[in-house]
Amino acid sequence: MTALYAATAATASAAAPQPGAATLVQSVDWLAIAPVVIAASVGLVILVADLFVPERRKTLLGWTAVAGLALATLALLPLRAGDRATFCLTGDAGACSYTADHFALVVQFLVLGGALVTALLSVATVEESRLPAGEFWFLLLSSAAGAALLPASRDLATLIVALEVASLPAFALVGLRRGDRLSSEAALKFFLSSVTATAVSLLGVSFVYAATGSLHLTRVAEGLRDVPGQLDTLAMAGVALTLVGFAFKTAAVPFHFWVPDTYVGAPLPIAAYLSVIGKAVGFTGLILVTVIAFPAFSDIWGPALAVLAALTMTLGNAAALRQAKDRAHSAVRLLAWSSVGQAGYLLVPIAAAAYAGREQIGSTVAYALMYAVVNLGAFSVAALVARTSPLGRISDYRGLYATRPFAALSLAFFLLCLAGLPPGIIGLFAKVTVFRSAVDAGLGWLAVVMAANVVVALYYYLQWTALLFRTPAEGADAAAPAASRPKAPLPVVVAIGLTAVLALVLSGAPQLVLRFATTALFPL
Question: Tens of pLDDT along 342-377?
Fold first, then answer.
């Protein structure tokens, strides 16, 4: 017995970590990852609760999702110092897989706030369209958790996983309207194109890993600065292929073809979600891999992104210009093509970062914050109008001010912000900031292309705005007495009001968001 005790003690002594010895045990900073964990946990709770909640009380699941997203957003407040990191290598505290810095926190606020507005829009949609409530809310929260994980990811493996966690539930959300041909077609097109882009990105990541021997972004950057000559071509191919998946998410040309059909086929709240959160995911990933991981190859991705920016804004605005007012779903199609054009503007500062330094990225973040607020607001009004005009034509908005003045004034303000015209001051300031980043980087030709596209976009934004204040057409739903129209659901009204107030505040003090985005975010 004594011998057995002695042997056990010796084994335990040998197994115990000695002073100064390396340990493989990683500590987890639960506060840093709280926003992601809360969103994912609430999604799982809703999925299980759906088995026990009776059909007549399924709305409770929606409000639980809203509360969960609000709580996840509030969980960002204790992290505002931006100095936390976790899942770090035990031998290198500077190489971490999750970093809650200022950049990550701002994008997480955008993502979770956007998901919260989407949830508000979806409460009525899920009930009226008879969508499976448990599955819908679980998928939405899972996608939001993946989107919130991505900006804090600091290694290529976590980036790809976060990208797919954000994307895979979105495929199902787009096609959740069973028996709807447009919905099924949109989901299939979205799925096939996205899976192809992800496969290409994974191939690129494997090439980068083969050339550098690391997946952590900071270590990849160090490895790419001194790639052996025989691996140089492999590294270049890896950089180019890795960018493909993120370019797809941003809806940059030529990876944009899925956008209009997907937005039309998806439930309107999900179209709004994809237009904002989907883009935020793509642009965040693009920023992280280009600015942090691939600065050594800026002479490759800089010119490529500049050309992509010019093509994307030009094609997006040209297609939006061609939308006929009386065509079915023309309102959503215009917003879809408009979002492609806006993606071109968002690409400009990323391209400029290759020439003038990573500080230019702040312009993309500032523009993304403005775009998220006003685009979600525009889709919120579209969701309200679709209740009485399910065809979703631009002509259905004629005379909206006569029947729903609050919605009409809000939509007019959102469209003016997107156009960059007063009183939408935040849109004007954001465009000027992006324009200045191109000029500072010596990309004068890109600044000229952007200026021309801004003028083109004015036409269709102002045309839609003017339509809101015209006399309603004879026999149109807009001309019906207020008493005969269905009452606007409270969550939709709250979503419109929330986005309108935020847009007004940002327009009243645009320097707050612009100063923070361009100075406080860096160094990454």
Answer: 999 999 999 999 888 777 888 888 888 889 999 999
Structural tokens at position 503 = 């847009």
Spell out the SS3 assignment of 209-253: HHHHCCCEHHHHHHHHHCCCHHHHHHHHHHHHHHHHHHHHHCCCC
Is 119 within 8 Å of 69 (Cβ atoms)? yes
Quick: pLDDT tens for 309-333: 999 999 999 999 998 888 888 899 9
Residue 478: partners with Cβ closer than 8 Å, 6 or more residues away: 396, 397, 398, 399, 400, 402, 403, 472
Q: What is the b/e burial string over 403-428, where b = at least 16 CB atoms within 10 angstroms of the residue's CB? A: bbeebbbbbbbbbbbbbbbeebbbbb
Q: How far is 282 from 57, CA to CA, in rounded Å?
A: 36
* Pick from 439, 166, 117: nearest CA to 278: 166
Cβ neighbours for 106, distance < 8 A, ≥ 6 positions apart: 365, 369, 516, 517, 521
pLDDT bracket for residue 5 (50, 70, 90):
very low
What is the C-alpha separation between 294 and 257, in angstroms, rounded?
27
Quickly count: other Cβ atoms within 10 Å of residue 481's Cβ. Answer: 7
Distance CA 324, CA 370 (A): 27
Tell me the β-bridge partners of 155. 216
